[in-house]
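Write out the bound-state structure for S-adenosyl-L-homocysteine.
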Amino acid sequence: MNVGKVYLVGAGPGDPGLITVKGLDLLRRAEVVVHDRLIPHELLRECRADAEIIDAGKAQHDHRIPQPQINALLVEKAQAGKLVVRLKGGDPFVFGRGGEEGLFCHAAGIPFEVVPGVSSAIAAPAYAGIPVTDRTLASAFTVLTGHENPNKPESAIDYPAIAAAARAGTLVLLMGVTYLPQIIAELLKAGIDGAKPAACIEAGTTPDQRVIVGTVDTIVGLAQAAQVGSPALFVIGDVVNLRAQGLDWHTP
Ligand code: SAH
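---
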């Protein structure tokens, strides 16, 4: 039997209209779709009636299908000759383990392609009226993960470097809801300006989008008071002010 192929497809950040033309075309043709929890579920209506749809969605403490099993599943389905779409939230290579899945396919001799997606790191700020760069305010942006406790000795994040990056541009923190207080404390220790504008965007690009604006000093309390839940990201930088200056195109 001919070997199939695995497509690592970005589903975009939440608004189903933000999948790419190429991604949608593949989704419509796929024989097997293995999707994450954080995808626009409306997109699954686009699948073939006979497509096998597998929910590999992972809640934080309830890994429904462990990553090694997802990798094995992709390979197994492709070895059976199937056109496999691995549908991932945002972009597959931005904190999406798409690299691991591609390497696993490579090691197994399975052809694969990557279809980039619109990452929440850029799109959620955009729907909140916050450009991640601006000619006069931010000439760089840094995207970091907050999924690990900074108090763990093995924490891989270099907070002094991140605080320095915040002086040069915008910070976008993904997966930061749980450890936000510790992360902000580390950034303040590393010298970030507590008065810097900060925003939290929950469920960005969806009808449930919520945006909370404050400063580095106030954002932890504001996010806690608003009971911000997943998915949410945080933006730190002067660009946050542009929202109130007329860029908030999305709030009705
Ligand atoms: N590959 C994805 C990111 C996966 S990590 C991408 O490119 O967007 C998951 C994290 O992304 C979440 O914890 C959250 O911080 C962020 N995220 C994903 N979708 C989001 C959304 N609609 N609004 C706000 N943050 C989102």
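---
The chain has two domains: 5-115, 120-243.
Helices lie at 21-29, 67-79, 98-107, 120-127, 159-168, 180-189, 219-225, 241-247.
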